[in-house]
Specification:
Length: 87
C-alpha cells in the first residue's frame, strides 16, 4: 500500500515536470535507427543466453553482475553516511 502510493506519487511528479518542459524536438532518424539496432542485438543476446543457461540462472547472473558493478558506489555512499553520523 505504501509502496503503491510512493510509486504513484513519483510517476505523477515526473509527469508534472515533463508537462512543464516545452516541446522536445524529434530525435534524428540515424540515432533512432541505431538505438533500435542496439536494442535488437541485446534482446538477441539475452535470448541466446536464456537458452544456454536457463531463465533462473540468467537472472541470478545479471543480479550479481549489477551488484558487483555498483558495489563501489554503494560503498562510498554508506561510508559517507557513516562519517556524517560519527562526526
Amino acid at each position: 500500500m505504501i509502496l503503491q502510493i510512493l510509486i504513484v506519487g513519483i510517476v505523477t511528479f515526473i509527469g508534472f515536470i515533463i508537462s512543464l518542459v516545452p516541446a522536445i524536438p524529434a530525435v534524428p532518424t540515424i540515432i533512432a535507427t541505431s538505438g533500435e539496432w542496439i536494442i535488437t542485438q541485446v534482446i538477441g543476446l539475452v535470448s541466446v543466453l536464456r537458452v544456454i543457461y536457463g531463465s533462473a540462472l540468467l537472472t541470478a547472473i545479471v543480479l550479481v553482475a549489477v551488484t558487483l558493478l555498483n558495489f563501489d558506489y554503494a560503498y562510498n555512499i554508506v561510508m559517507w553516511i557513516y562519517r556524517k553520523i560519527r562526526g
